[in-house]
From TrEMBL:
Record SUPFAM superfamilies: Periplasmic binding protein-like I (SSF53822)
Coiled coil location: none
UniProt name for this protein: ABC transporter substrate-binding protein
Keyword presence, Transcription regulation: no
Record InterPro entries: BCAA_transport, Leu-bd, Peripla_BP_I
The entry's keywords: Amino-acid transport, Signal, Transport
Signal peptide range in chain numbering: 1-24
Species: Thalassobaculum fulvum
Length: 399
């Protein structure tokens, strides 16, 4: 009888061990909730390719961390805020994901933030940019690898902030554009340049003639200007830079300026040699082993260099793996503790999640456009790297 009890107990222990091993081998499930279809489809594709390459790079090609597979579940928001909320809730609730990454649109991101708080799970925002994501709408479950509007604005203000420069802005009339101009205005006020006019246009604007006339008129009335500049902040279709340039701003003494963009959009920059601005990423600028790998592998797999949002997606993938290494349980509180203040190496070099608002601090790049007939886009040549310590990025989540 005792022998049978002993065998049964040993069998129970063995089964328990096997069960524990099976549990440990369960995959980490990551939801990528992003706008695969719609006006930002090109951004979305780059972001997903980058995310998968980041996971691959950070795991040495195994797609495993802590002995557990990483499983990525894709969900298409179609750039609809309500759908984004529903899909994120589905990912957290029905799919029981460890964390989620995305989305592309700032408007969709803002709708998704409360869902992360409701379910008490991490949302790693990439590539949505609006300041309010890690500002007024932020909660402690939200982290962001993408740059925010303040980082865009401060770096561009540095590039355009010389004494005697008069600047007018053109932006989309939604969170991305409004936040971008607000941050730019604040940053430019700390330079010797001045902002003289703000113009906003619907996101689906195709004809910018009326907006251009108001901008030209405002700059024409500005006095004491050494240079008159229209700074454009735009995402998606419409090509406002090309449309404005077609109206011959030079004849009125007006220059155009903007930040970096995807390679297809920078085809318009070929008409603007010497244009200055600041960018988040261009594949030839960062010099480090991570970017070397990304450029070489992307060229090999897609016969093209990595683009603006590919680098961002890769940064998110690397951040996910580094966080899981520090918090193997995948528990939300463990992840938050691991990620606050976490430094990780990306194609742009070191990024750091600021503890106060979970925004990734990172380098930006002041550029001047060079034109090469053999290259299909205007090349943003590096003027200088603006490092983390060179930019005072405000914490905007104070209520």
């Amino acid at each position: 009888m005792r022998r049978h009890i002993g065998i049964a107990a040993a069998a129970a222990v063995a089964l328990g061990l096997l069960g524990g091993t099976a549990l440990a081998a369960d995959p980490y499930k990551i939801a990528h909730v992003y706008g695969k279809t719609g006006p930002f489809e090109a951004y979305a594709k780059q972001s997903h390719v980058g995310l998968m390459m980041g996971l691959e790079y950070a795991t040495g090609g195994s797609m495993e961390v802590n002995g557990r597979k990483i499983e990525v579940i894709e969900k298409d928001t179609q750039l609809k805020p309500d759908l984004g909320k529903t899909l994120l809730a589905e990912a957290y609730g029905d799919d029981d994901v460890t964390l989620a990454v995305g989305p592309v649109s700032s408007g969709v991101a803002l709708a998704m933030l409360p869902v992360a708080q409701e379910y008490g799970k991490v949302l790693l925002v990439e590539p949505a940019v609006a300041d309010s994501i890690t500002g007024s709408a932020w909660n402690r479950f939200v982290f962001r690898t993408s740059r925010n509007s303040s980082q865009d604005a401060i770096s561009n203000a540095v590039a355009l902030g010389d004494a005697g420069n008069c600047v007018a802005t053109l932006a989309q009339d939604y969170a991305f554009g409004r936040d971008g101009v607000a941050a730019f205005k604040e940053a430019l006020a700390k330079t010797e340049a001045r902002l003289v006019f703000e113009e906003y246009a619907p996101t689906d604007t195709a004809d910018f003639t009326a907006q251009a006339q108001r901008l030209f008129d405002a700059l024409g009335k500005a006095e004491g200007c050494k240079r008159k500049i229209i700074w454009v902040v735009w995402a998606g279709k419409g090509n406002p830079l090309g449309k404005l340039n077609a109206l011959n701003p030079g004849s009125q003494g007006v220059e155009l300026a903007t930040g970096g963009n995807i390679l297809a959009a920078m085809a318009a920059y070929k008409e603007l040699p010497g244009m200055e601005g600041a960018t988040y990423y261009y594949y030839e600028i960062p010099k480090n082993p991570v970017n070397d790998w990304l450029v070489a592998e992307h060229q090999k797999r897609f016969s093209a260099p990595p683009d603006f949002f590919t680098a961002g997606g890769m940064a998110a993938g690397i951040a996910v793996v580094e966080a899981l290494k520090k918090a193997p349980s995948g528990d939300t509180e463990d992840l938050i503790a691991a990620m606050e203040g976490m430094e990780f190496v990306t194609p742009k070099g070191v990024m750091k999640f600021r503890k106060e608002d979970h925004q990734a601090l990172q380098s930006m790049y002041h550029f001047k456009i060079k034109v090469d007939p053999a290259v299909a886009w205007g090349i943003p040549e590096l003027v200088r790297e603006l490092k983390i310590e060179d930019m005072d990025i405000p914490v905007r989540n104070r209520k």
